[in-house]
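Q: I have 326 residues here and want to know how they pack in 3D. Can you give me a structure?
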Amino acid sequence: MNQPAEPVTASTADRPAGPASANDRVPVLAWLTGAVFAATELALSGRYGFQQDELYFIAAGHHLAFGYVDQPPLVPLLTRVTGLLGVSPTTVRIIPALAGGAVVVMAARLAALFGAGRFGRVLAALATACAPIVLGAVHIGNTTPLDLLAWTAILLCVSTALLRDRPRWWLAAGAAAGLGLQNNNLVIMLLIGLALGLLVSQAGVLRTRWPWLGAGLAAVIWVPNIIWQATHGWPQLAMASALHQQNTSLADYLGGLPAQLIYPGLLIAPLLIAGYVRLWRTPRLRFIAVAVTFVLVYVLAWVPGKVYYTDGTAPAVLAAGAVPSV
């Protein structure tokens, strides 16, 4: 029988990172939680008709390109692929449901890396699966489900590289970042936040080649969309300006911070707060705390009306909050 992993605390955080062991496994119950989550989302996916974004991506999928005025090309491409099974709300929502199940399992894996025992890992999966921000996000075929998956995957890969001394995981992080950038440019916020976090608490790793190789891989994957943007007058910059103007009313600013606790779900808000505090208090995890804080400050300052722009950090924060539950 496996012994629970030792929680990551301020007293244990400065110990050298060791290789992953059997104790890093995701429990079967967490895998089942992810599977049930995806199956439930799929089972309910046909209960109502298309959402307007889905209709847009179906149309865009019939005009494939390396970019569009308001987003990169990945979702239109995947919508075109799933459309081979027939055009219906259910087929459009297959990939979002699978992405949601993967995020649930990744939350458990993050909890394992952070030091949670078996119960904590299952708690991280359950909390992520029950979070309204996740339940709602992966029930619609737009960029948000894949954005949530990309952010979680990047944080998981970077955490594995740093906490388990597996530098080749930086390449996986680069691949996840590149694909994420082909889905939504919001990934840039996370990447800047992680860069700042590494400078603050893990600067030594920047003297190795692996993070830079990962960044180079991400750039190579992103290049087709960058070229498209450059040759079409950088419409994404105009879109960013429009979003800023439409989401910066006085009400948006006044409600921005409270909404960050209400929108994820009041029942999981205490776990989010606990996770955020733990990330800051644990030296080896502080790079994530810096990244989360940067994203939060950016959203509150630039587009406070877009509360869900911070959703991608929620699985990692919930995983950190589950660590004390060994």
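Q: Anything worth noting?
A: The CA atoms of residues 24 and 113 lie 7 Å apart. The chain has one domain: 24-321.
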